[in-house]
Amino acid sequence: MTTDLPADVMVPFAVHVDFQSGALTPDPVILRRSHADLAGYFVNESDAPGEDEMYAVHEIRVPATNNNLLSSTTVLQPGTVGGEYFMTKGHFHATRDRAEIYLTLSGQGLLVMALEDGTTQTKEMRPGIVNYVPGHWAHRSVNTGDVPLVFYAVYIGDAGYDYATIADQGFPVIVVEGEDGPEVVPNPRYTGR
Amino acid sequence: MTTDLPADVMVPFAVHVDFQSGALTPDPVILRRSHADLAGYFVNESDAPGEDEMYAVHEIRVPATNNNLLSSTTVLQPGTVGGEYFMTKGHFHATRDRAEIYLTLSGQGLLVMALEDGTTQTKEMRPGIVNYVPGHWAHRSVNTGDVPLVFYAVYIGDAGYDYATIADQGFPVIVVEGEDGPEVVPNPRYTGR
């Protein structure tokens, strides 16, 4: 039998997730994003809601190492800015090849993904859907419904975050309110291609 | 901009999870375990149910690499064998330090965990509970309720499976039906310490 355990073995723990609200119990780490934090992300910001919360990320924090799993719930409010639905900033993983899993718990939306060469994929988000985001795909969630979009995301601890590429270039596509519902259209301000 | 994407970038995909039944859509890979597959795992097997299904694992299969996330639902039926609740075989990860996350979707049970030095931890499983299983902890789920226990598990692709250690040594503790509910008691046949 092997008993040479490393000194830093973690102790198992549990957190409760409320599938409707996305609240965690206990919930020590909450990141809140208002529209002001996303200034410049929407094409037309004349009706931007300012300091109101657009989304919150509730983290289950563990050391950000390659053997751990980071996870969080995101609660993305409904609404639009200049006809674009509320969305998260979106990012690549700093370690590009790391995958991520999204499990939608309530609400509805779209998961927009893009490679650095401008290739895009858009997938539906609704309760019970597991979205697999393979390595190399930037990912942004968009609330296309009337209620908060709540999802649970899991990713490898050393994935890291590259927000700068999306902040600089934009996403190749945006999601706008159309006459018959959400439309995924080219982003006129995308500079990545 | 970086456009030197590797040739094997995966395409995003989605799978629907039924939180009540654990069924996946699509559901190409299902591993079924009857009591016959767990012969020798229970202390007293005189009333073992034989070939009836004890649990099923529905896998979302991706390449088992360190940048991917493997995930699955497990549907563990209710029942007992010699007073021990139905349970999964339980295993260590072959790559010992890899963590795993369990999200219980329906039913109730216990997640029993053990280090190779015989240290144990037992945590409640019920809908909405995220159980964090850090690296080095063997993990087994036990259905202590009257309905199927359904949970979604996510782990790092290169974690691997070591079933042999538990098959040989047993778990340090077992979960038995007591007068006032489930009791976690020492396993008289545990040989690991």
Automatic annotation (TrEMBL), chains A, B:
Q: What is this protein called?
A: glucose-6-phosphate isomerase
Q: Which family does it belong to?
A: Belongs to the archaeal-type GPI family.
Which reactions appear under catalytic activity for this entry? alpha-D-glucose 6-phosphate = beta-D-fructose 6-phosphate
Q: Which SUPFAM superfamilies match?
A: RmlC-like cupins
- Recorded GO terms, molecular function? isomerase activity
Q: Which gene encodes it?
A: pgiA
Q: What class of enzyme is it?
A: isomerase
All copies of the Glucose-6-phosphate isomerase prokaryote domain together span 37-171
Please indicate if the UniProt record lists Isomerase as a keyword: yes
Q: Give UniProt keywords alphabetically.
A: Gluconeogenesis, Glycolysis, Isomerase
InterPro entries membership: G6P_isomerase_prok, RmlC-like_jellyroll, RmlC_Cupin_sf
Q: Look up and give the organism this protein is from.
A: Nocardioides aquiterrae
Q: In which pathway does it act?
A: Carbohydrate degradation; glycolysis; D-glyceraldehyde 3-phosphate and glycerone phosphate from D-glucose: step 2/4
